[in-house]
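FAQ
Q: What does a multi-component entry look like?
A: The components come first, one per line:
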Amino acid sequence: MTATTHDDAHHHEAGYGGLRRWLFTTNHKDIGTLYLLWSLAMFLVGGAMALVIRAELFQPGLQVVDPYFFNQMTTNHALVMIFGAVMPAFTGLANWMIPLMVGAPDMALPRMNNWSFWLLPFAFAILLATLFMPGGGAAGGWTMYPPLMLQTGDAFPFIIFAIHIMGISSIMGSINVIATILNMRAPGMTLMKMPLFVWTWLITAYLMIAVMPVLAGAITMLLTDQYFGTTFFSAAGGGDPVLYQHIFWFFGHPEVYILILPAFGIVSTIIPTFARKPLFGYSSMVYATASIAFLSFIVWAHHMFTVGMPLAGELFFMYATMLIAVPTGVKVFNWVATMWRGAMTFETPMLFAVAFVILFTIGGFSGLMLAIAPADFQYHDTYFVVAHFHYVLVTGAIFAIMAAAYYWLPKWTGHMYDERLGQWHFWLSTITVNVLFFPQHFLGLAGMPRRIPDYSVQFADWNLVSSLGGFAFGLSQLIFVWLVIKCARGGQRAEARAWEGAEGLEWEVPSPAPHHTFDTPPAVR
Amino acid sequence: MKRNWRRGFGARAAAALVLLVAAMPAWADFGLLNMTEGVTESSRQIYDLHMRIFWITVVIGLVVFGAMFYSMFRHRKSRGVKPAQFHHSTAVEIVWTVIPLIILVSMAVPATRVLIDLEDTSDAEMTVKVTGYQWFWGYEYMGEDVQFFSRLDEASNRARQLGSGIDPSSVDNYLQNVDRRLVLPVDTKIRFLITAEDVIHSWWVPDLGWKKDAIPGFVNQTWTVIDEPGVYRGRCAELCGRDHGFMPVVVEAVAQDEYEQWLAGQRGDDGEAARTAAVDGDDAGARLAAR
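Then the predicted structure of the entire assembly, as tokens:
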């Protein structure tokens, strides 16, 4: 079965070449590529900020930056990584792969697709420019809690504006994903036959549409508090600073699942391929994802156990949070069962996927510990939390994105990547990321708060280890950059089905995937 | 591809070794690995909860990762295995949904008990009001006519300046010392009223077992009973601006009679100066700290 009708694999829109091709493109593959390259660039920018943080924390005392700049780095590191690196990477993968996976010729709304990408460079230009404005950029943490956030200088409205633009971009991306999945599936592809990556993205897209406006509301209320005399979050005027936290985390908790659900989809695609065995428990994977998404809406206040909630509230949020362990556990068990009695090989995508399962589970364990409210009174706002969410977001989300990049690079470029470099990248990343983040559990338990530029001397040793790990992890990522450049330029030609055990419509079209695919929809059994 | 993997292995192992050696100096202090047991009944309960969940996760981890690694070694294509084709088992899936639920209940029951206890501030024998400022703490002994500010001590303050040239390890209790400690009696149920003047702070002494946010316009309450006399150090735990890292908390727990003496001493000139100063807010705090 081949659904390609165009002979010339790289047929472009009439009249557009060079730069204009990328500026005006409405092709899902071009836009997917733009998103992925953008996300890689932002990963390096956000990573550089993280290295400033680790350089300052290398030893006690202030050596490199002043405390205010340090706060700007922690804040912007988070904003850049979340909105600039992880979310656009997933959107890029969605753009590239969803139409191929469901047998559609393109995304449902191609012109909006172009716009949703091109908003991003503007949003981040504004966000990064705030670092140079009088009074400095955002330094109140990515959560932007008032009243601290209201102490920002001239940059304040620009930060809010930048985040609004990012939100608009995300919402448009989500609408496109939903419209494509619900309307453009090939005949015969029922919902319960869709690849898991498509399923997880469908659920993620609904999460985004549900919560991005909530974030927009919260930061708009900040804006009116600052400039229009409202007092939503000021007790002096009858408002409540904790109200902001409730609204923010009603967005923020589903947001962390926005950052991980597509990763579940990726890993559920890769493990069966290299285990040469169908995914275990497909339907329970779908239901587990949906349950996690539902639960993510009713656990927000577990980020706020220390704000002085009533006992009943604390109990409810503790129980609800602990419940998330059940569907998440089901997913992990299903991945293990998929590997069980398979015939496994360990190419780079599989290595990253396996590391994902192990390290994400460790992040899940610390998450379960954090769910226990009384214990959270000790963990809260310490490096234990930092370690927890970096296990989930770096060895979780980012490792899955890496796995996806290696898995589909042959499909995107038509060339196999350099396996030796890939293995180097994997082993260096996996070793150093643990040197970087594992000691942070110890630091947090020993009493080191997060977001501090300097610390008392008993924390010196583990911080030193963590910083060494940080620099090594950062440098290891340059291998990946080189590998991608090398793969795009040439290399061993990839077959249509680049991996022996790969299943799915994307492997039915040639590699590289032609500019236009599936002008006539493929038939799905 | 497989040959490449083997060839790369030696080099990768070497890289790992270099990293481990680079991390060597850190092995000097292995002491800081776990949460403190603390000096209160609640902090010990919390420590027990923490260890209980920790060991449960370790056991689950061993089982799950054990199964994974077994599978990765035994079920490799290079060993010539043929992949099985099973992909569903309702029985297995019910079992691995129900067992975690039972484990969760076994965690939730003790956690609930501790939480209910922690939130019960009734029958307190004395009350201390804690106020967070950018960037120091204010303490008021309710009904005792004693209040003062507590700031980072001078030695730490000098050493922490960017490019001060002072080695932090040469400063006693670098960043965890204050000019005036919060003195509290042991074996007394103390209620804390916690609030803030400008932005949100969080008052935390790990040995007491909890932290509580200090929120402008709102008063949170919590309690403690300290078992052993001693000096317990903590810090602000909520990002509160430029000097967030520089507002330590130092609690000195003393015997009841010693506490009474100390309190009486504070009602003298010192106490008077602090009361007047409190009216002027930040500037007064600076003057106090300079004293």
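Q: Is there any commentary attached?
A: Sometimes. For this entry: The radius of gyration of chain A is 23 Å.
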